[in-house]
Amino acid sequence: MVHHGRGKAAVVPAALAIFALLALLAGCPPQADDEGEVVAPDSLAPEPQALTGDPVKIGALFAVTGEASSLGEPEADTAKMLEKNFNETGGIAGRPVRILIRDTKGIEADALNAAKELVEKENVVALVGPSRSGTTMAVVDYVESAGVPLLSCAAARAITEPVKKFVFQVPPGDADAVVRIYEYMNANNISKIAILTSSSGYGAEGLKQLTEQAGDAGIDIVAKESFNEADTDMTAQLTRIKATDAQAVVCWGVGKAPGLIARNMAQLAMKIPLFQSSGVANQRFIEAAGEAADGVIMPAAKLIVLDQLPEGEPQMAALKEYHDMFVAEYNREPDHYGGHAWDALQIIKAAIERAGADADRAAIRDEIENTSGLVGIGGIFTYSPEDHYGLSPDSFAMVTIEGGKWKLIHGNE
User: Fold this and answer.
1) Which whole number is the average pLDDT over 225-247?
2) Residue 344: which of 154, 97, 144, 163 has the closest Cα?
3) What pLDDT, on the 0 to 100 scale, is given for residue 70?
4) Quick one: which of 68, 250, 80, 65 has its CA closest to 153?
5) Which of 65, 105, 100, 66 is nearest to 80 (CA)?
6) 3-state DSSP helix/strand/coil % of the chain, to nearest 5
7) In this structure, are strands 167-169 and 150-152 parallel, antiparallel, or unpaired?
8) Delimiting residues of CATH 3.40.50.2300 domain(s) in the chain
9) What integer is the mean pLDDT of 212-224?
């Protein structure tokens, strides 16, 4: 007769002894849990469960080429990196992930056509981007009618004000950037300014915010000039500004033109401070402006001065995670534009995981709106039915440039 209980008692200690011997030979001593049972060390733990089901498809509308490629290229690189990372770490709700990137070239019609293709042919569950305010506004009506969640990587307040059901933002916005600039000016006795804004949608929003907030901030705008992002000389506008009693110039634009404005100011021996929008807080601005970049002041996402942030910075862990992953993947420093893509994709991932693996677009939208306290690169996100922007002015740091390097401005020094 076979005594089953006795056989089991004999086998278990032998199995544990063999396991312990193998673990020691591997240089990984076994551990005991609270009840004295031997458990496998991490190196001998089972492999992560294989991804199953159809891929979760997310569309991305980035200006990878064109005048705004300084925005779209790092966004696309970040999306590719995160697709790889998600699929190596459990996917989204256990399903594989595909991030389908389309190059809008920064052109409104291209953005709209790409959005339609991704929604109607690829059946994506959500969209990230576009990179620019103008291209975002070109797709807003379509995504609202199609019922597809969109997390824009552009900063114009008009994108989410008034609130649109399916449209959200991830970058710290123009209105908050102007708040920070005017706070700095107030602390440094600057009250008369000239503004030089791009003719693009981004520039138009900057002009709107600079103008609307000036009165309450005690700022007098003594000159208003504009430029096209493809312009190659700004001396005419700057000569007119130089003839005024402006104590500072504020430029609002992206691409190469803001760097050209810094150079033209130096050529005209203009000694007053130059403020730029957060749209040029990246290494390409320093390259475009050359030595004239030194002394320029702007609001920026905190990533750009990561190594200068004080202890206790609540975004530090998220900033370091993104920074270190990007450097390991591409062997170069990331910037906040890539951070917009990171934030948008992390928000979508978290929303789908709360809603469930098979959630439809409407359910995903609802969970995006329920995002609360999500720590990202652009700030700490809390959306609500009344607020699809989700950030505050303290998402921005004020920075300047010294010797071609970014420097954190502490307070409003």
Assistant:
1) 96
2) 154
3) 87
4) 68
5) 100
6) 45, 20, 35
7) parallel
8) 56-173+314-395, 175-307+397-408
9) 98
